[in-house]
Amino acid sequence: MSAGFTPGLVVSKNVTLRRVRELPVKGEIPVKVGDRVSASTTVGEAFLPGDLQILRIPERMGIEPSEVQKGIKVSRESIVREGEVVCEHRGLFGLFRTTFESPCAGSVEFLSAQTGHVGIRMASKPITISAYIDGEVVGVEPSKSVTIESNAALIQGIFGVGGERRGILTPLSLRGDEIVTTAHIPEDCKEKILFGGMKPELEALTLAAERGAVGLITGSIDDRALHGYLGYDLGIALTGDEDVSMTVIVTEGFGAMTLSTRTLALLNELSGREASINGATQVRAGAERPEIIVSNEGGTDGASKGEFDGTLRVGSKVRIIRVPYFGQSAYITELPSALTKIQTGATARVLRAKLASGEIATVPRANVEILAEG
């Protein structure tokens, strides 16, 4: 078998895509099938139950549960204000009076006669979800989710951190093979998605975030800079929930790798337009890639040049997406048809590819993504 199929990262100015927007709990879906929505349109609303605060009154007041029952001032489902007296106890001959005040506001969920504990359910937390992309509502699951379909430009990265953001695509003034430094970060970054260069310095990442950038798209990143930006070491199995104000998307890999010519060309073409980005990455089963999406406003002008069909051939350029060669690009030199035993002990179809270092690596075909030239 001289050819095989493998998924590749999409870099296209015209694709039809769908995104499911789902509430974490049952709620209201205020749109219907056929509605046109913008990225900022609210398509789901719900309330998350408030935290449950357990008031351990006997332990705090030094009395028995039975004494709590005698002095309790609230009842089940009653509303309690912060600082309100929940229990009152009078000591010897009623001369000594002590009280217990609620440390929070909420409703009384339970009163335990056995332990003397009182449960206060704090106020529910409203949550909303937006459409994330411009498009048409093509599916609604009542009380749960909505599906948005859009014609858009789509660029996928190999790795990212940070969640969904919306901003204006803005190029950095540097060559594709230059390291991003603080000198390249514009004074005004507010609500912008910066792109360009490679291997940004930690100081550049920090400065861009401080100046209000909501996203940075670059060719590669150093693991030390990533650690400094996040404040901790990050496993690459699942990302997207990091507590950062600026989403970072890497298109090529770790180390010193430049933005591909094709990706940079499309980003430059889309410069100045509003984009939706998401750094969420999952590299195991059910792979999820970071993405940059720009709506085509309901019109199409044909697919971008250089589309590929996802077929592996000798000479194809691929990116390896598993250790020990994670993020490295290579050219296929051989596609053995027989199953081969791999390090895990399993057998799989493999390929042999030449790395930039000249080394010939043997890797399972499932562990690569095909790249378009350029």
Structure description:
By secondary structure, the chain is mainly beta. It is 10% helix and 39% strand. The protein folds into 3 domains: 4-24 and 152-295, Glucose Oxidase, domain 1; 52-121, OB fold (Dihydrolipoamide Acetyltransferase, E2P); 311-371, SH3 type barrels (Roll). It has helices at residues 57-61, 65-71, 202-210, 223-230, 261-270, and strands spanning 4-5, 11-22, 36-37, 42-48, 52-55, 79-80, 85-90, 97-101, 106-111, 118-121, 125-130, 135-141, 145-156, 159-161, 164-171, 192-195, 215-221, 247-254, 274-278, 291-295, 311-312, 317-320, 329-334, 340-341, 347-348, 350-355, 360-364, 368-371. A hairpin with a 3-residue loop joins strand 12 (135-141) and strand 13 (145-156).
Strand element count: 28
Overall pLDDT = 88
Helix content: 10-25%
Instruction: Tell me the radius of gyration.
Output: 28 Å
Q: Biggest β-sheet, characterized?
A: 11 strands, mixed
Class by helix and strand content?
Answer: mainly beta
The total domain count is 3
What fraction of residues sit in β-strands? 35-45%
Per DSSP, the total helix count is: 5
The CATH architecture name of the largest domain reads: 3-Layer(bba) Sandwich
User: What is the CATH class of the largest domain?
Assistant: Alpha Beta
What would you call the shape?
elongated
Task: Give the CA-CA distance, first to last residue.
Answer: 27 Å
CATH topology category name of the largest domain: Glucose Oxidase, domain 1
Runs in which pLDDT lies below 50 for 5 or more consecutive residues are 1-6, 299-309
